[in-house]
Amino acid sequence: MNLNELRDAVHETACRKGWWTDGEDHLLLAPAVLMLVVSECAEALEDWRNGYEVDKPRWQVTSSPYPAQQPKAMLNGHSGDPGLTLHTPDGEAHEIDLNDADDRDLLRLYGYSVKPIGIPSELADIIIRVLDISGAYGVDIEDAVRTKMEFNETREVRHGGKLA
Prior knowledge:
single chain; 164 residues; alpha+beta; Helix Hairpins; 3-stranded antiparallel β-sheet; two-stranded antiparallel sheet; 5 helices; extended
């Protein structure tokens, strides 16, 4: 999948989930949606400041993605704790490791939502936001990235004398 195909898929999902509606003046929304990219950067920075590893995803468990749906099993422990135990209606207890995809699937089976959080997730959110904005405004993001990368190759090392 190229960047423009990914842009279109991301934007279609955002539209389907109600983030863009017909008739909105997208020019008025531009500052707000650009600040959403900044907010994702700030969330990644806070995770970094809190000592979380850049390359390690973390997980958060919530009771249900739908307020009317109650979980079908009891979960003991707190989201992110290593000692989570899922007690199913048949009386079985399952020790849960949120880093294990099968355990996350088991939680979902019983009505829990398992959300990826942490720096990798925030970096993904940054890309998703940029692709969504590109889709909303018809930006050929693949060409824009390629053009900018070609230009960056012509720049001096640490151009502008900046530290970062």
